[in-house]
Amino acid sequence: MRSREKLYKSIIKEYEDQNLLLGKILHEYIAQDLYAIQLTLQRYSIEQGHSLPIDQVKDIINGTIGKVQQMANDLLPVVLRDFGFQRAIEDLFLQYNGIKNEIQVEHSVNSLDFNFQFKLFQLVQFMLKACFITDDTCILVIKLVVNKDNLLLEMEGVSETYIREINNYNKENIKKLQDRVNLFEGTLDINTCSDRNKIVVIVKLN
Length: 206
Hints:
Elements: H1 2-48, H2 52-75, H3 78-83, H4 85-93, E1 100-105, H5 114-131, E2 141-146, E3 150-156, H6 160-169, H7 171-183, E4 187-193, E5 198-204
Parallel strand pairs: 1-2
Antiparallel strand pairs: 2-3, 3-5, 4-5
Helix pairs in contact: 1-2, 4-5, 5-7
């Protein structure tokens, strides 16, 4: 059984390493080529006068650039690579506007190698997907604490209905989070506190 787990982990590690390489290629080559095409069309439009066919092509390229950027960032978060874990997490939480976020990252995380920081970053992503619903506007406070061994996510002010039905609302994403935690031989606890409208998620890594 242990040998099978070791095999699965090696396969997943190879898969994740390949994703990082693909992310780099998308960021540094394909996206740059698309930008170059976009600038060439823009310069041609200025020199020759705007024409509907060129504008249509530019619209298609703009849409493609957006998709490539999103895909590349999923594979290799540029903010994480260039500005570090704290900034990457802060930018991640900016997706949830109007929420007061308290983010605490222990200094030891900054000294970890990039691959491990990326794994922690992905875990935080999984935690948010498992516990957050975009149409629940009641959330008042989100608190995140990260160190190299544990992640703690507290969400306070969520609706009572959501607390009662969390497993039904986000069953698939909770399973994905659990699978990812299992990969690192960690433990996952999701606790709800209905009297305080609070959800607490704790991930402990071995």
